[in-house]
Amino acid sequence: MRHTGQSYAPVISVRDLHYQYEDGTVALAGVDFELHPGETVALFGANGSGKTTFVLHLNGLLEGSGSVEVCGLPVKKENLKRVRQKIGMVFQDPDDQLFMPSILEDVAFGALNLGLSAEEASERARIALEKVGMLESHDKAPYHLSAGQKKRVAIAGVLVMAPEILVLDEPTTFLDPPGQRALTTLLRELPQSKLIVTHDVEFARSLATRAVFFQKGRIAGEGAADRIIEQFQWDQKLCKGQYL
Amino acid sequence: MHHVVLERWSRGSSFLHRRDARAKILALLAFLVVVATTSRAFEALAGFYLLLLVAAVIAAGLPAAGMLRRAAVVLPFSLTFAAISWLSGEPRQAVILIEKGYLSALAALLLVSTTPLPQLLRGLEMLGVPGFLLMVAQFLYRYLFVIVEQAHRMRLAGLCRGGLKRRSGGFRAAAGALGVLFARSYERAESIHRSMVSRGFQGHFQLLSSARFGWADAAFVCIAAGLPLAASFSARIWG
Fold first, then answer.
1. Which of A80, A102, B4, B224 could be cross-linked to B27 through a Cys-Cys bond (beta carbons 3.0 to 4.6 Å apart)?
2. pTM of the model
3. Where would I find the H helices in chain A?
4. CA angle A228, A11, A88 (to 5 degrees)
5. Do B142 and A101 touch (CB under 8 A)?
6. Per-residue pLDDT for A56 more than 90?
7. Which helix (H) or strand (E) holds A70?
């Protein structure tokens, strides 16, 4: 499904993407999608509808049939290093992302992998930590942080690579309401285009300029978040249990 | 948790904390070799070695009682071997075995309590320990806490459903929980790898800190390794 009304070239362009897991489960059955500069798109859909499988294709972690382009670069083996610099992936459980012994080292991890010197990487990591309000904790170990703080550090860990796109998988999981509010404010301030996989309709309403609804490995609907939520009854108040 | 305390202790700023990790590793190795190879007059020397270590613990600003207590974690193992020696008619050997085990544990504990893990691993890497082994150690250290927390939650869930009451049922439940924990850890390992690859990881860890081995470090190795060595030689000559 093409997004209209944007004059800039899309930063993500996906055409007829198919993917089947080894056990035969069809996860993606022909997905067409575009993300334009400055957009924030929420991905809705039931568990197992293909949302996470879809985003794992965007930086080459999974490889299906069809075409995926990020900032004009086809997601292929020879481009993966550049693609992974352009697309910052924040995973659902921050404990999976914060694996270094100290926060500064963890945030600098991506910058060092880009080939920056230790001094440059350290400087960039400090700037990224300041951006997410976590600079004071730079020498702490990740397990000393709250869930909200871990999430902020995980975001700093991708910001350090200066990405053009942020992809966030269930970013509000594990967060209490103040943590969710703080995350909303932080994401609103970040200039990157964003793709957010979420079940949290309020969070999506407050951030998304557009929403996409996944069903059985396809995009079943796309448009303004409110309209999609109503169309698919994707709200506690509207949901009649047909997705259970 | 145990390793959280050590983590806090290792972030100190004493003279010992400031030494390059390689200097401390080399000093520890020398100490362990001296302790392991000393047999004559060991009873008297053990007191001197203990004094040396306690002095270092105090100089590093670490709680002596806490360190001495934590080093005792090795005793159940050394006591087993000591009991075998005792039963085979070598009571002196049994006592020496316990003393050597305890002193070695205390010295190793002193190293990890005065060296943050990243620096320790970097030091080991620079001394030639295979990088893959160190990566495993780093991940184990980082995720031990997460896995123990998971195990604790599963135990609570089991207790809530009365699953750990009967002895035989308890074993079955524990075995099942262990299996689930293994499967979850495997899944987590895959997720961690995905997140590493997403941030440009290509199989080799780059580190922020650049270690420097200065004159103070060289002097520290000479003194820290020289003192127990000199004591051991003196015991051989005079003892």
1. B224
2. 0.75
3. 51-58, 80-86, 94-97, 103-113, 118-131, 147-159, 177-189, 201-207, 225-231
4. 90
5. yes
6. yes
7. strand A65-70
